[in-house]
Amino acid sequence: MKIRRVRANNHRKAFEVETEDGRHVFPYARLRLRPTPQNRVAKVFSDAELGHEALTYVLEDGEQDSIHVDEVLEYNEDPAYLGDLLLYRLTLEARKAVAESDLSKREIIRRLGTSASQFYRLLDPTNYGKSVGQLVALLHIVGCEVDLVVRGGAESANVKREA
Question: What is the pTM of this model?
Answer without folding.
Answer: 0.64
